[in-house]
Fold this protein.
Amino acid sequence: MIHVCLSSCPDGAEAALNELRDYQAEVDDEPSYAGQVEAAQRLWDRKRKNKPISVAREMLLRMCPSSRYCMFCEDSRGSDVEHFRPKALYPELVFAWANFLYACSRCNSPKSSRFKVFRPDGTILDVTRKQGAPVMAPEPGEALLIDPRHEDPLELLHLDLATGRFDARHEAGIARERALYTVGLLGLNEREYLCDARQDAFEANESLLRDISALRQAGRPQAEIARKVNALRRHPHRTVWDEMKRQREKVPNLKALFGAVPEALGW
Ligand SMILES: [Zn+2]
């Protein structure tokens, strides 16, 4: 799970964002909350293939750090524009750019319309609407799920490079609850293939860094080195790379490699 940010905008981004605001106004104009929930679903179904959504999708794709992978698992190709806060609970955010994510269906399906929030005192509330329950606005609160668009998941998560498994970085409190909830809900450890892929990414990154160091020492042409650097940058599971940089002082092998190629800390 990786923190993402937008480095460049595609053509028409501003117009698309304005149109999204117009779409949202149609939802917000509904006088009742239940009416807004109904309008959010209806208008999303009708407009999701329209240009503003495809421009937003392109913007999300440009945010993915390594070749268009899901922002949650970083392993599968993302499939579509998804909502961080579910539209069934937060119709006021159905067309909100800040609420869009690029995720794979495997990550999005357990999340779907489930949502938990927490209050400043640390109380956690499940605001998921039960089947048949009255359509009422959820209790307010901060998202328990980590939002990779608006916070750095590694502030809350620790990745064990040897096993490829995530754990909470903090020993107690809401920071720990958020980490464990996110890993559990999205199945980030439960899916064995994800742990294997993170271990593979660690091996591959280490090997590429070693190659880059050797090529530099041998005085090889810059283009040859750049190919290796690009391969490293495009590799999925970018979190593994970020965690390697963070843990470099504790792992002698990494300390030596980053010492030999210090500019890698900026990659
Ligand atoms: Zn995913």
